[in-house]
Nucleic acid binding OB-fold tRNA/helicase-type
Amino acid sequence: MDDFDRHVDDIYNILGGKVDRETIAKELRNWIVNFKVPIIEAKRSIVSKLGGDPSKLTNNEKKVVDLGPNDARVDIKLKVITINSKEYELDGINRKMYYGIVGDETGTIPFTAWKLDVELRKGDCVEVKNAYTREWQGKVQLVFGNNTKLSLLPPNSVNVKTTINPAKIVELHPKMGFVEVVGKILEANPKEVMVDGVPRKVYEGIIGDDTGEIPFSAWDIEVHKGDVLRISGAYVRTFRGMPQLVFDPRASIEKREENIDVREIPVTLESLEGKGGFNVLVEGVIIDVKKGSGLIYRCPECGRVLTSTICPVHGKVTPKPDLRIKAVLDDGTGGMICIFNREQTEKILGIDVNKAISIVQENFGNMMVIREMIEEKLIAVPMRLRGNVISKEKYGLTMLVRDFDFINLEDIAKNAENLLEELGW
Ligand SMILES: [Zn+2]
């Protein structure tokens, strides 16, 4: 029985045979291959999705690929790839901490050790009990703390796979570990920042390929707008609710002579779950227009939406009228709240904010009238939206719409017809 079957069996047993192995295997493959979710997390999600209790999943020994940002207890067998030490002072006593990279056959991870039971050298294989993980600069780190027990294993008993996953930009996810992308620098702005009292240069900007765009930060590396680069050994972190590509001189970077056509293809909402997206294109149907859409009044000082002339912060104010839409778009794989600003709302409604005010007045102050007008224009209407999508655990996906378009169903039918003709049908 291979590992995959073993995981399917775990899930099957917890569900008490209520769901067949084939369904479970299909789900598991989908989560791992398409969503690039670590196996332990995938298993938990599938068990709870299929009505089981995910806490029944036992995971005594983990693999690097399974490690999440806040694992409280980690038992794992590792090989030391690099190890460095650093002296520091605490309570007047000189102490030493260690840091470096460890790995197993599923991948590599940085570690920090505040204490070492045994002296570790590069190349040592070690069994670790009761370590924990934390997130630092958006990247998972393994920590050997006071309660961590280490014992040396026979040499070469752990093999290391330096996993560098080749990926298209649209696929990039913080859980992927090291990645390799080929992309074109669309924007690059140098910045100097102080890190531990040392000035360091970082370039921030946007890189794109034929599937999409992503913001990046490049540490101690010069990049220029227009460069086409193959970056191998970068990683993805979540920054302000969206993915960001990070790399430094440890990555291997090669300048390419070829050009890349940067374009966006529509992404599925499912693929944005848990990571968000930068300037992405989404196609779907508006299924709901939420409360708070239409004519609203805001505090002129702080922009809060007010229901009276009293701002909780600024007291009595003269509220400023505004228009906005909070709608829900469904693309068949998931839902997303999309927020249209005043200008976009005016375009959708075909009226400006003053006209909206007079319509409300004509209806004896009933603000719902505007929301109903929006519902009439948008509900069940297919749209193509572009913008930044923020993923927050509590609220799901939210897009601040940058551009929108109504999808013309006739065009779609026409395109399909043309395609069939080309194919000779
Ligand atoms: Zn205010």
